[in-house]
Amino acid sequence: MKTTELQTIKQRYNIVGNCEALNHVLDVALQVAPTDLSVLIIGESGVGKEIIPKIIHDNSPRRRERYFAINCGSIPEGTIDSELFGHVKGSYTGAVSDSPGYFGVANKGTLFLDEVGELPLATQARLLRVLETGEYIPVGGTEIRKTDVRIVAATNVNIRQAISEGRFREDLYYRLNSIPIQMPPLRERGEDIVLLFRLFAMQMAEKYHMDKVVLTEKAKSLLTRYKWPGNVRQLKNITEQISILSKERTITPDILLQFIPQDKESTQLATIHKEGDHSFENEREILYKILFELRGNVNDMRREMGIMKKQMEDMQNGEQNVMTTTAIQPIQPIRPLHALEDAEAEEYIEPTPEQENLNLSDLNRQMLEKALDRHAGNRKKAAQELGISDRTLYRRLKQYGLDKQ
Q1: What distance separates the 2 farthest-apart alpha carbons in the chain?
Q2: Nearest CA to 221 among 181, 266, 264, 252?
């Protein structure tokens, strides 16, 4: 593009800056304008993406038709289909009449879908069909309608990451991305930052009839070194603050530092990582914590198994010592005391004489007595050693007549 044409476009749309990246964006926008190809504008929030679709529309064969700019992130999910594709009367509560939607009203014109990455998946499927066939069905309707709309979309999210996370359709991305335009962040525009500050300061001086604020050379250097996470929007806000609040009209670095955030968070909000770069510090810390907790649980289980094994050995040795030559009728096996389930969740059933092994009952009683002796009659500690609840312990004491000791 010739320099004169470029300057004409900048003057018409009040665009300030001479950096190569900005000039390239404007050049691509003017080249794609005469076509009907979809355009996807990618850039951080506040870089001025909204001016590019207007340039494309005004320099296209559709310039005499209607132009609509829609912020997809500001429309509730429950009504966005109706807003875009229209609805028929009675399709939902409040639908008192038919509505053509933006695709119906903007027929032959241009639709700018800002924050397209915020669209629900169901709406993305409808949008894909419109882009491919020019057809859509209003909410609650059955009749297929046709439209001829030029789509220009913009987003500040990482679409490829959204695709990998299942939040954005890959086929829609490639359909929108026929012509990609990457808007440069303000921190990469060098001297354009000073030019923009000068423009905003002049606008404030004219609007409020005050002297214009100007920067010293050191203040200009500080201004260009700042990361500007809010981009052009943040620069405009700070310039307005300085114009109103600063008593001095010549802005030094000391004065400028009073208005530029210096905390780490505000200076790193817009840091961009390389594609595929990801930090796993938090995940690693969580895994370490889980592993340590598991190791502690395993150690506890080992100690409990050791106690149970010792109790079983004591029971077996005691049973061998007290066994007599008297024949014992076959009985149903009774669970040892330490293997009983928690009595809070299980109702105790008194065994019948036919089911009870007297020798094993004596062993259980001996275990209770020994546990109480070891803990000086402390029933809670005895229950913990035996692996039963306090309530089960009390029932066993009553069963063996030990509750009155």
Answers
A1: 118
A2: 252
Using H for helix, E for strand and C for coil, what is the string for the chain? CCHHHHHHHHHHCCCCCCCHHHHHHHHHHHHHCCCCCCEEEECCCCCCCCHHHHHHHHCCCCCCCCEEEEEHHHCCCCCHHHHHHCECCCCCCCCCCCECHHHHHCCCCEEEEECHHHCCHHHHHHHHHHHHHCEECCECCCCCEECCCEEEEEECCCHHHHHHCCCCCHHHHHHHCCEEEECCCHHHCCCHHHHHHHHHHHHHHHHHCCCCCEECHHHHHHHHHCCCCCHHHHHHHHHHHHHHHCCCCEECHHHHHCCCCCCHHHHCCCCCCCCCCCCCHHHHHHHHHHHHHHHHHHHHHHHHHHHHHHHHHHHHHHHHHHCCCCCCCCCCCCCCHHHCCCCCCCCCCCCCCCCCCHHHHHHHHHHHHHHHHHCCCCHHHHHHHHCCCHHHHHHHHHHCCCCCC
Place of tokens 């509505």: 99
- Which of 84-98, 202-216, 237-251, 294-308 is predicted least confidently? 294-308
Span 358-391, pLDDT tens digits: 455 666 777 878 888 888 888 888 888 877 887 7
**Residue 11 confidence (pLDDT):** 93
Q: Summarize the confidence of residues 24-30 as an average pLDDT.
A: 96
Kind of pairing, strands 110-114 and 250-251?
unpaired
Q: What is the mean pLDDT of residues 151-157?
A: 95
